[in-house]
Amino acid sequence: MTVAVVDPCCAGAYAPASLVSGGLGGTEATVLRVAGALSGRVGITHFQKNRCAAEFGDAGPMRPFDDVFEARGISTFLVINSWKVACRLRKAHPEARIVLWLHVHPGRHNRPMAGRLRAADVEIVCVSRSHADWVRGFLGADAALRIGHVHNPIDDDLLPDATPRDPDRLLFASSPHKGLAEVFTWFSECRKAIPGLTLAVADPGYLAWETGPAPEGVVFLGKLPHRAVIAEMRRSLCLFQPQTTFAETFGLVLAEANAVGTPVLVQRDLGANVEVAGDPAQLVDGGVGQAIERLRGWRAMPPVVRCDPKFRLSAVARRWSTLLGVDGGTAVRSGAA
User: Fold this and answer.
1) Which residue range is the domain that position 242 belongs to?
2) Which residue among 110, 140, 192, 238 is least packed, with the fewest CB closer than 10 Å?
């Protein structure tokens, strides 16, 4: 079994060491975790945009993107986000299985992708059930286009510990384009009702974004190693991301926060929020008054939260093994995933 993970969209080359140093988006972190979990059972080679030289590591060889069109001996190509590259690969590799591993919501100008993917016999794997349902509706796809899902993974060893929580500390741990300007507005109103609240902002730093002036009480943590972000989750009252504009296809930080026992405050009926943070206590659908009420309750008695076991890396790796037909099994087309 030989698999190519093709990333034509990344801002820069990345490798397993990037999981420790920080600054990765959820897509890149997911790619590395899944590749690392499967690397002992399947040969994986990565082809990445903006990579100038080959690199070798635990997750498989890392090669420049353009090499993928001349690569030989690869049975399955997993293409990150770019349906056009997936279709180009069909011409270069007519006998291979080609999967579009979709981590985003395609824009309206991409509606023609359904017919092109069908014609090229490319299947789609999304990162949550809600994401897959959205893509089916967006494409108006018939049964000839296979669309399945495998969740993004979180580490098996992310568990609650004895770290004391600061009832005044809220945390935003995402790129600022994911609604931070609106979160500032929510936080400012919450701080008027609960003086002393602070909002720590951990920005992975892969995308500059204008958010306007930060309100009083905001602390910028900058780019942190992953372990430091987890430490911030452990000590915070909650992950505070009640914005209404950016729909997550999965929401890795939500699952990670719940895994260490930290509640999240997010909008109901936005992206995958209900699927990932399904406890109604973590979902808001009213105005800021509802958020203030929730924070006051959590300050008095923090809720007990856990992540769904199917988000754990071991469970996700089993789903990928089934989909790819690793260990002698029969490969499952993504529409059944």
Assistant:
1) 166-308
2) 140
